[in-house]
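STRUCTURE:
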């Protein structure tokens, strides 16, 4: 057995290709080393909340017990909908937490992961946020002093751009069309009202991400520990937060935050 313990979403290091590490209990598994090998992941039936650590029968919101889903600042609705953040008004589930996570610089970005989308991330999450989404390339559009303003920009641009990642297209490595992100950034800027244009980020760097994948599947089928306790097969690659097996099955690691797994591998 390589490792056992409660897992968290894979940590990624920006490289060519991206390097992945799976936190498992007290250790981290270097996942790139397992590509091309037969691996087995066994779910023991134990789930622990990633916030309070208590055992829970059901995981909510990618790793929380029900109580923490309702009360923990990291499970707040502002995580998914930044425009709802009121930390700048002194309103938050936890203002100490908000000082470190909401009242800091945020980026609004355009990224291509199957198709182009608009999104928001904290400044220190570049390029991790894009890697977690399986983006092939990305550009920063705006820099704002707090989460709320970045969310307002995102909501405005959602009239013109998607804010969702098509995970099937992303895992099949199908970009629906080629994009010139610098031109798209200019177009997005011109769509914004004047009071939001002031947050334009001057850097036009295009970030490019490549992933450790032997071959992308033509069809994908999602598997989950909520339906089967053992998932095994030859690991064909990793993209986003997904493990890709040679038969087209894919496992969303982030969805299983807090699950206690036993992990083994064979050449």
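SEQUENCE:
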């Amino acid at each position: 057995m390589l490792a056992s313990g409660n897992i968290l979403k894979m940590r990624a290091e920006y490289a060519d290709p991206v390097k992945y590490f799976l936190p498992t209990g007290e250790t981290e598994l270097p996942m790139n080393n397992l590509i091309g090998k037969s691996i087995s992941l066994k779910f023991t039936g134990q789930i622990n909340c990633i916030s309070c650590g208590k055992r829970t029968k059901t995981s909510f919101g990618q790793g929380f017990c029900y109580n923490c889903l309702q009360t923990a600042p990291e499970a707040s609705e502002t995580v998914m909908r930044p425009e709802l953040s009121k930390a700048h008004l002194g309103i938050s589930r936890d203002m100490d937490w908000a000082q470190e996570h909401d009242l800091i610089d945020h980026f609004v970005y355009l990224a291509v992961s199957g198709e182009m989308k608009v999104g928001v991330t904290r400044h220190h999450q570049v390029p991790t946020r894009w890697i977690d989404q399986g983006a092939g390339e990305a550009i920063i559009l705006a820099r704002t002093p707090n989460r709320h303003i970045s969310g307002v920009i995102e909501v405005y641009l959602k009239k013109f751009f998607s804010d969702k990642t098509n995970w099937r297209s992303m895992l099949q490595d199908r970009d629906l069309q080629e994009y010139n992100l610098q031109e798209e950034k200019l177009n997005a800027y011109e769509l914004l009202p004047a009071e939001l244009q002031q947050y334009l980020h001057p850097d036009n760097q295009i970030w490019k991400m490549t992933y450790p994948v032997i071959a992308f599947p033509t069809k994908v089928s999602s598997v989950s520990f909520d339906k089967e306790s053992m998932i095994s097969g030859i690991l064909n690659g990793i993209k986003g937060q997904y493990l890709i097996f040679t038969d087209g099955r894919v496992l969303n690691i982030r969805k299983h935050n807090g699950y206690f797994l036993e992990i083994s591998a064979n050449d």
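REMARK: The mean pLDDT is 95.
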